[in-house]
Design goal:
Blueprint lengths: L6 H8 L14 H21 L8 H21 L8 H12 L6 H12 L16 H4 L3 H7 L3 H11 L3 H13 L8 H22 L1 H27 L10 H4 L2 E3 L2 H6 L6 H6 L8 H11 L6 E3 H10 L4 E3 L2 E4 L4 E4 L20 H9 L8
Length: 369
């Protein structure tokens, strides 16, 4: 691939072609959030107050789950400062939007805005990057897991989407809470604990059966939707020492009505170029990128990206290759041989099974890549 450039390099070349209003906050996005909030409240009241067969709660539970996910997408936008700019109002509205996913605004801005966006796809600094094989081989448990056949791992990985965001959010809390100023840590704890207290209180109030449909099933659905996007954002891309969004990010395409419901969250390369811009204007950014650097831009249908994730292993062998530890096959990443329509070993297999086993037995030994 050609020389990498920082997101600032691209942004400086695109900004003159964008309207000035594109860089202003768009508070009208809150109307969509209000609609989702009212839908959630209405469904919760209906399940809580109306006695009927649990089967009748299923469609309401699904609607709540989809609304939870969409509120999360809006919360992501709010906490980037693209909806409102006043810090206290931004954090308050972001907390409300992220309430179903039980993620506090201070933690999210530290984890996502200040770490993930600054160090995207850096194998050590990005908290959301997938591990390299070097890191995996230090753990005998992970080595055993990754020696399972790829289809089995892919199946369990797909199932894990239903809880990945929640688990990762708790892990990020444990990782970053100690980095906050001691005076601010109580607020960070409060923002994490209060949503869970709300949902546990709901369990005590309505009982386990209704709670299952009011919170647990919707949370699993929301996790699947959110993680389906997040998993395709970067996991098919190479890791990069330079934070180049055209190299390390993927935009997925979905029907227009889905973009409306999900606040244009599919435009992920565009978001990494202009995280402080409302996603309302990302279609304009996309057109400009495709005019100026069509050979660099990565775009894939959402379903094709999910299939590609299923068919490719997750550990990075090097910055631009994915390795299947069960057989040593190495696959290319986007820009380095990966083609959505024909997923196969894009790079020549440079490791055989005996070398993989030797890596597991001798994790400290260095091997040529």
């Amino acid at each position: 691939m050609n020389e990498l450039h920082s997101f600032g390099w691209y942004a400086a070349r695109l900004k003159p072609y964008l309207p000035k209003k594109a860089f202003n906050p768009v508070p009208a996005r809150l109307w969509g959030g209000l609609a989702y909030l009212l839908i959630v409240i209405g469904c919760l009241i209906t399940i809580g107050m109306v006695e009927m067969s649990p089967l009748f709660y299923v469609p309401l539970s699904i609607v709540i789950g989809f609304s939870f996910a969409s509120l999360g997408f809006l919360g992501h936008e709010i906490l980037h400062g693209t909806v409102v700019r006043k810090p206290w109002l931004r954090d308050f509205l972001g907390a409300v939007a992220f309430w179903p996913l039980s993620t506090g605004p201070k933690l999210w801005r530290k984890w996502h805005n200040l770490s993930h966006h600054v160090h995207t796809q850096h194998e050590e600094e990005d908290p959301d990057s997938w591990p390299t094989f070097d890191r995996i081989k230090r753990s005998r448990l992970l080595c055993w897991v990754y020696k399972l056949p790829l289809p089995i791992r892919a199946f369990f990985s797909l199932c894990s989407l239903s809880f990945q965001f929640t688990v990762h959010s708790l892990n990020m809390f444990a990782t970053y809470v100690k980095e906050f100023n001691p005076k601010k840590r109580p607020a960070v704890f409060f923002e994490m604990i209060l949503p869970w207290m709300t949902w546990i209180g709901l369990l005590v109030w309505v009982g386990p059966v209704k709670w299952l449909f009011m919170f647990l099933i919707p949370l699993l659905i929301a996790n699947v939707i959110v993680m389906a996007y997040i998993s395709t954002n970067h996991r098919l891309n190479p890791t990069t020492e330079v934070n180049d969004p055209l190299a390390n990010s993927l935009t997925v395409t979905v029907p227009k009505w889905v973009d409306v419901l999900h606040f244009n969250f599919s435009y992920h390369t565009e978001h990494h170029l202009f995280p402080g811009m409302s996603s309302k204007y990302y279609p304009l950014v996309k057109n400009l990128i495709k005019e100026k650097w069509p050979e660099r831009y990565h775009e894939m249908r959402f379903d094709h990206a999910l299939i590609a994730l299923w068919k490719t292993p997750r550990p990075y062998y090097n910055s631009h290759g994915l390795i299947d530890p069960s057989n040593g096959n190495v696959y290319g990443t986007l820009g380095h041989g990966l083609q959505a329509q024909t997923i196969k070993e894009q790079l020549s297999t440079s490791l055989n099974k005996s070398k993989i086993e030797e890596m597991v037995v001798n994790p400290n030994k260095q091997f040529d890549k």
